[in-house]
Amino acid sequence: MTFGDHRGPEWDTVFSTMTIPRHAKAVELLTSLPLEVISFPEVARTRDQIDEQVDALKHAGIELFIVHTPCWTSPNLVVHGVQRMGAYTIIIGNRDMGTHGCVGLFGAAGALSQIGSDHRRIRMDYDLAMYEKKLLPLIRAASTAHRLKGSVLGYFGGRSIGIDTATFDPMGWKKQFGVDVEHIDQIEIVRIAETISQDRIDRMRVWIEENAKEVLYNDGKFTKEKFDFQIACYIATKDICRDQGLDFTAIKCMPELSNSYVPQCMTAAFLPNNFDGEEGEKDAMVMACEADGDGALTQQMLKLISGGMPTFFADVSHIDDARKTLYCVNCGAVCAWYAGRDEDPGKNLNRITIKQSIRPGGGAITGFFAAPGAMQLARLYRVDGKYRMAIIPCTAVTPSEEILEEFVAARGPHQLPALFAEVDFDLEAFVDEYGSNHISGVAGEYVQELVELCKMLGIEPVVFT
Predict the structure, then answer these.
(1) Would you list the domain boundaries of the chain?
(2) Is the pTM above the cut of 0.70?
(3) 8-148: what CATH class?
(4) How far apart are CA 264 and CA 231, in angstroms?
């Protein structure tokens, strides 16, 4: 919404010729961005006009309110519109000397600050590159904060193998983030898996067998029957999530399922993926291993802020100081998309070896090294009960033969899926601050978006650069 001067003579003789074309330009630039923009041809100048436009925007289900003050406008009218809207607000002004834009911007923003109305201010030229650089990260962050509200984590099991940093306060989440938690016993996965039809299992297994680099069945703990049950657990988890309206998940797995049934590695590989062999294209759905609630919430933030990309979850398993590389390794599977980062799901699977798990329950794990490319790692953690977020831009790299030889020599021949992440910051400072053994990630770089999201949600951002 563009707000204009409500005074007739001043509007007619001065501000209309400045405001109306800038309103049109702002709408044009916003609609050039990857957004659904809802706007009106008229500038809002009176309470009736403001109420009419605000109510129409609310009816449309907007996630974010962009207030445009290109010239002078009465601050109380902007406050009226913002309060009636009740959505996160960004106020945009301009740098044109002739518009009196600073007066309109500061008058409205100062009034909002006085009443404690959360908002952000941007003063910029009417330039698409500027809108992309300054405005789009804010919009992504605000949209993420909005979409978190009312979402539900499916929390299967409880604390896994004593990992305290994976625990969380469900009511604290509801207060701070608006996120609900549905606690589900993980035996429910087993119960429903036993009812999954063989046809559904076969579609998934045959797709994996036909596309994976290799599937190393044996006569011991990795039989086709064991693999079928792992796949059935994955399909059961999908069904539970859909039936119960869950938005993202965390599954305990160890030790009960990994010891007495099968590890949930196929779920970790394909639930966060955007494709599987049973249904084809699908929405990527976050899953965190070892019932890591804060890890799952971090992944969900990364998924939303990236526009729905598959997400990554692993341990910070080793820090190579000489090469400034984090070795991020999972005990059984990470999202299959990261094997190749390719739009063709078959090409991603071509890089994955399916081999026996070393867990007592047997079954399979995935083996691959994550494909190279820009990567945004992040992690929610708490210090004295208050949330911080580690924000870690990095580059996924293909390990050299020398590194692989060292890796195998140190870890043994049973290699797990791993991301080799080159970083550029003080590793000792990272060791002193970082608050979890787990880490989450998504392809791309979203430092600015995550910093803004933290500000909106009352999280302290800790950027490692």
Answers:
(1) 8-148, 152-463
(2) yes
(3) alpha beta
(4) 9
